[in-house]
Amino acid sequence: MSAPVDYDLHGIVGVRLLGAGPAEERLVTRQLGPIRAALEREPDVVIRFVDRLDLAGPLRLLGVDDVGFTADAFLVLRGKQKSRARVRVPVERIGGRCEIVCERGLAAVPHLVAIVNLTALAKGALPLHASAFLWNGTGVLATGWAKGGKTEALLAFLTEGASYVGDEWVYLLGDGSRMFGIPEPIRVWDWQLRDVPWLVERLPRAQRARLAGLRVAADAAGRIAAGSGRPAALARRLRPLIDHQRWIQIPPREVFGADRCVREASPRKLFFVASHESDDVVVRAVDAKQVAQRMVFSLGEERADLLSCYRKFRFAFPEATNPVLEGCEAREREMLTRALGALEAYEVLHPYPVSIPALYEAMKGWV
Questions:
Q1: Residue 30: which of 79, 91, 66 has the closest Cα?
Q2: Cβ atoms of residues 3 and 9 within 8 Å
Q3: d(CA 236, CA 232)
Q4: Which of 2, 92, 221, 256 could form a disulfide with 260 if both were Cys (CB 3.0 to 4.6 A apart)?
C-alpha cells in the first residue's frame, strides 16, 4: 500500500491521494502545481486510485461514452482531450468534503481544478482566472477573458524585474486583502518568446531545438499550402496542428529564481486586459466594480465543462442537487465585488498578438 500524498493550497483546500503510484502523483501535480505538503488537518478532497471500480448493477451511458450511472454511482468516462477515463465523482458533494475514485491509467483527473476551485469558493476564498506579480512593492492583478493577455502582461513585467506571484489561477481572501499564487509552469508560445530573448537563453537546449524544429515545419507547411492539389490541402490541415504545439512550459522558480517567486502579496492595482482591432495599446482608468461584474461570466465559462457534467448528473439523479454549484454565480458576484471593488483599476486594450515590450511601455506608468 503506497503512502498518502498530500497537496495544500495555501491552507485553503487540502487534497490527499490514496493508492497513488508515481504516474498518478505526476498527473495530479501537473494539474494542481507544485503544492505538495503534508496536511495537518483532514483533506477536503480525497482522490483514491484503484485498478477497477466496484459498481453495483449495470452502467447506463449518456452521450457517446461521456458519462455513465448506476443506481447509486455517477461516472465520468472521458478525461482530458476526450481520453479514456473511469472516475466515480460524487457530484452532489463537490464543494464540501468528497472522495473521487479513479481507475488507473488516466491522462488527468476530470474536472479536478474546477472541483478544487469550488471547494475554495465554498470556504470563503475567491479563485480568479488571472496572473499576478509584485512590481516595486505593489501587488498587481491582470485578469480578463481567456486568451486576453494576462500572461503577456506578466511576462512584460517579469522582463523588467517584477516578482512572480501566479499565472492561470490566483486565489484571493474574501476581503481582497491578500492574493496567493501557485509556482506552476507558465505556458509560453513561440511568438511570445520572440519578444523575450533573455528567456530563450535560459531554456534547456532540448526545448530550443523542439521549437526550432516546429518553426521549420510550420514554415514548410505554409509554403506548400500556398500551392494547389492534394499536397497543399494536406499542408493546410497540418499547419494548425503544428502551430498548436509551438509552446513550452516554463517553471518560474527555475527560470526566474526562488527569490523572485513570492507566495502571496497584497493586491493594489487591477488591470482588465483584452484585445481590440486597433494596432495601439490603450490604457485607461475604469470602475473596478464593472470589472468584477464582467468576471462573473468569465469564471462561469471556465466552469462550463463541470456544469455540463452537473446537468448530466441531474438527468441521472433528478432529485439530487449541489447547492454550491447552483449558488456559485451569486457567491462569486458578491465576492468579486468585495475583493476587487476597492482596487485601482485600469482597462488595457491591445492588438493580438501584442508586442510584449509595447505592453510594458503602455502599462508601466499606471502601476
A1: 79
A2: no
A3: 6
A4: 256
Distance between CA 100 and CA 87 in Å, rounded? 7
Three-state DSSP at 290 gives helix
Residues in the chain: 367
Omega of the bond prior to 183 within 30 degrees of 0, cis? no
Q: All 3 cell numbers of residue 70?
A: 448506476
Report the chain's terminal Cα–Cα distance, integer Å: 52
pLDDT in tens, 32-69: 999 999 999 999 999 999 999 999 889 999 988 899 99
Strand partners, 172: 126, 179
Q: What is the pTM of this model?
A: 0.94
How many Å apart are CA 204 and CA 165, to the nearest integer? 23
CA proximity to 291, closest of 192, 150, 164, 122: 150
Q: Which fold has domain 125-185+256-302+315-366?
A: Phosphoenolpyruvate Carboxykinase; domain 3 (3.90.228)
Spatial distance between the Cα atoms of 296 and 291, rounded to a whole number of angstroms? 9
184 has pLDDT over 90: no
Predicted pLDDT at 1: 60
User: Which of 21-30, 96-105, 254-263 is least confident?
Assistant: 254-263
Q: Which residues sit opposite 126 in a β-bridge?
A: 172
Cβ(109)–Cβ(28) under 8 Å? yes
Task: Report the 10 Å Cβ neighbour count for 185.
Answer: 19
Instruction: Give the whole-angstrom CA distance, residue 155 versus residue 160.
Output: 9
pLDDT at position 327: 97
Q: Rounded CA gap, 139 and 150, in Å? A: 15
Specify the domain boundaries for CATH 3.90.228.20 within the chain: 125-185+256-302+315-366
Q: What is the distance between the alpha carbons of residues 274 and 334, in angstroms, rounded to a whole number?
A: 23
Residue-wise pLDDT for 247-268, tens only, equals 999 999 888 888 999 999 999 9
